[in-house]
């Protein structure tokens, strides 16, 4: 068994603080499991740091840009260092939402019919009628996501956000339940319904204790439950994910069987005390240390 593990955490993305929390929890679990652990706060000198540490493998606890989009995975491939979670292609494809959604739709997995546009075009009513959702094309943890109920929303005004001139993914808002399902080694764990106590399931709702209720297992029909599990496994396989992933859905019961929509797949799901993957793993009898052990056992290089 590889004994020296570098836990990659922090990084340069908007999800840095979440990554630090994930990394700390995973590093502590690895130490309990008997590994020699080195915590690495990732910066531009990562290749040099890894050369000095000479780990047997890397545990990727990064989230967001550079850590989740294929960039750090490519570097680790060049260094011939095995690493946890998905490889270059799966990471890059999943992170780029329009590409991933196109792949899912081609495979028969229902997704919201999105369009690419700027905030100015949305505000001018040139894209679609509200309610709608505006998302950056390549961010995670709901960073930069706007739920727009009317075109006069001040967040659509010029210069309202840094990304005002960038092309965004615009989708119709799907009312109903927020559902999520983790997949480990190709097998779905369970389905959780997320009920924010106010607003939608944004960055604050994900990482602030007491703001969102997690219903495990989700109180949906057996048919919807099975379909969420099936689509999550299929999406994991379509992307070529490795280790663990988490698929996010919206379900509108008013549309019956056609009310389920796959939103995205996260190839670096959180491993914080509030995170969904450890919660689902515990529900099926897999404690946190055992989950981390499984991810280490899956570590490899794609090439």
Instruction: Kindly provide the radius of gyration, computed on alpha-carbon positions and rounded to a whole number of angstroms.
Output: 19 Å
Uncertain stretches of 5 or more adjacent residues: 201-205
Instruction: Report the major sheet.
Output: 5 strands, antiparallel
What are the secondary-structure elements, in order, as H or E? EHEHEHHHEHEEEEEHEHEEHH
Q: Provide the residue-averaged pLDDT.
A: 90
The assembly state of the depicted protein chains is single chain
Strand order of the largest sheet: 10-9-8-11-12
What's the tally of helices?
10
The proportion of strand residues reads: 15-25%
> What is the CATH superfamily label of the largest domain?
ATP-grasp fold, B domain
Structural class: alpha+beta
Global outline: globular
**Would you tell me which CATH topology of the largest domain applies?**
D-amino Acid Aminotransferase, Chain A, domain 1
Count of individual beta strands:
12
Helix percent reads: 25-40%
- CATH architecture assignment name of the largest domain: 2-Layer Sandwich
Provide the CATH top-level class of the largest domain: Alpha Beta
Structural domain count: 3
Distance between the termini: 21 Å
């Amino acid at each position: 068994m590889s004994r020296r593990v570098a836990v990659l955490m922090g990084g340069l993305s908007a999800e840095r603080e979440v990554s630090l929390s994930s990394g700390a929890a995973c590093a502590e679990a690895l130490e309990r499991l008997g590994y020699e652990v080195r915590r690495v706060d990732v910066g531009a000198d990562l290749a040099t740091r890894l050369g000095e540490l000479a780990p047997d493998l890397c545990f990727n606890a990064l989230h967001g840009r550079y850590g989740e989009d294929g960039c750090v995975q490519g570097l680790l491939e060049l260094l011939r260092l095995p690493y946890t979670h998905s490889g270059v292609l799966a990471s890059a494809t999943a992170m780029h939402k329009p590409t991933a959604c196109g792949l899912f739709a081609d495979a028969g997995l229902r997704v919201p019919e999105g369009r690419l546009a700027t905030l100015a075009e949305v505000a001018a009513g040139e894209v679609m009628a509200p309610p709608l959702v505006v998302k950056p094309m390549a961010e995670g943890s709901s960073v930069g996501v706007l739920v727009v109920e009317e075109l006069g929303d001040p967040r659509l005004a010029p210069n309202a956000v840094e990304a005002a001139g960038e092309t965004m993914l615009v989708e119709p808002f799907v009312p109903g339940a927020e559902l999520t399902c983790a997949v480990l080694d190709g097998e779905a764990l369970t389905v959780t319904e997320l009920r924010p106590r106010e607003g939608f399931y944004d960055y604050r709702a994900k990482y602030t204790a007491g703001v969102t209720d997690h219903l495990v297992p989700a109180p949906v029909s057996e048919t919807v439950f099975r379909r969420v599990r099936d689509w999550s496994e299929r999406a994991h396989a379509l992307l070529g994910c490795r280790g663990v992933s988490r698929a996010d859905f919206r379900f509108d019961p008013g549309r019956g069987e056609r009310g389920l929509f796959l939103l995205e797949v996260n190839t670096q799901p959180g491993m914080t005390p509030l995170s969904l993957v450890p919660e689902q793993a515990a529900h099926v009898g897999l404690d946190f240390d055992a989950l981390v052990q499984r991810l280490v056992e899956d570590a490899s290089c794609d090439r």
